[in-house]
Design brief:
The complex is a heterodimer of chains A (116) and B (182). With 116 residues, chain A is an all-alpha fold. Chain A contains four helices and no strands. Chain B is mainly α. In chain B, strands 1-2 form a two-stranded antiparallel ribbon. Classes of the chains: A mainly alpha (116), B mainly alpha (182).
Chain lengths: 116, 182
């Protein structure tokens, strides 16, 4: 069961992250923030993996479940890695969208306070 | 007489061909095992401009490098009786020794700093599998029940009948039924 928790994936992800961030020229605050996002994101990916294995087992039987067990981790992990680095490469756009949502929310809360 | 530029280009091609070739062997033994070394290879390829291909080759250095490269193919025979009983004939560890030999033969020790990231990736990613073994007795009493709870909730939301047989084990209802009716 310990292997199912996904500690291996988190550690491999951390190694890849160290390498990629070592090569990147951005400031350390951005690097730390994105590292946290990446490491925390690995945990739900692992739950998706376990769910896939159970779903395959339930719907298609033990052999299909076993096949999914052998490969789902790698496939999902590399999809997450690709998605994360895509987001990381577009980090300025992501930050801008994040700030615009934040400002809209603050406007909304100010509006609500005024009419309460 | 070929120009220096053409020779250098040839050398770069040979270097990257030699770097790439063992990846086929790794993939032959374990398809997914090739992903991290492939990533390392790509990083090494991106550093093409930084590597000192124009450096003069010393005979002793080249011999040492080639010895390491050839020796990397025979690591299996020293591991299996001494340390591990079930390893692939050729895996990431063989590749690390091979790359070290290849780079040492081509560039000497000066490349180490420049090629730090691909090598760190190839060494640290497989080595990271040993950390969970150390962590297990300390972290598993907290992590496993929590992970089981979350998985159980997800599967119930999806409508998959699962039984929790102990604090840490989930079993599909149909598996349980098969066991009971046999």
């Amino acid at each position: 069961m310990w292997n199912c928790v996904g500690v291996n994936y988190v550690l491999v992800f951390m190694v890849i992250l160290v390498v990629m961030l070592f090569e990147d020229a951005s400031d350390s605050r951005t690097k730390i923030l994105w590292s946290l996002v990446g490491i925390i994101g690995t945990i739900p990916v692992n739950f998706i993996r376990i769910t896939f294995i159970f779903v395959a087992d339930y719907l298609f039987g033990f052999h299909a479940g076993n096949e999914v067990h052998m490969s789902a981790g790698y496939i999902l992990f590399f999809i997450w890695l690709g998605f994360f680095f895509y987001l990381f490469s577009k980090r300025e756009t992501v930050a801008m969208k994040f700030h615009s949502i934040q400002s809209k929310l603050s406007h909304l809360s100010a509006f609500a306070r005024r009419y309460r | 007489m070929p120009s220096t530029n053409a020779l250098l280009k040839n050398e770069v091609t040979i270097f990257y061909l030699l770097t790439f070739a063992p990846l086929i062997l790794i993939a032959y033994f374990n398809v997914f095992g090739v992903l991290i070394p492939m990533f390392g290879f790509l990083l090494l390829y991106l550093k093409k401009e930084d590597l000192p291909f124009d450096q003069k080759k010393e005979f002793v250095r080249v011999v040492f490098g080639v010895t390491l490269m050839i020796g990397s193919f025979f690591l299996y025979f020293s591991w299996v009786p001494l340390f591990f009983s079930h390893v692939y004939f050729y895996n990431v560890t063989n590749y690390i020794v091979y790359i070290f030999g290849l780079c040492f033969g081509f560039f000497g020790l000066s490349w180490l700093k420049r090629a730090f990231s691909p090598l760190f990736l190839m060494v640290a990613a497989p080595a990271s599998h040993f950390i969970p073994i150390v962590l297990e007795p300390h972290a598993s009493p907290y992590a496993i029940p929590a992970a089981t709870d979350i998985t159980l909730s997800i599967l119930r939301v999806l409508g998959i009948p699962v039984i929790r047989s102990s604090t840490n084990v989930l079993i599909l209802q149909q598996v349980m039924d098969n066991c009971l009716f046999r």
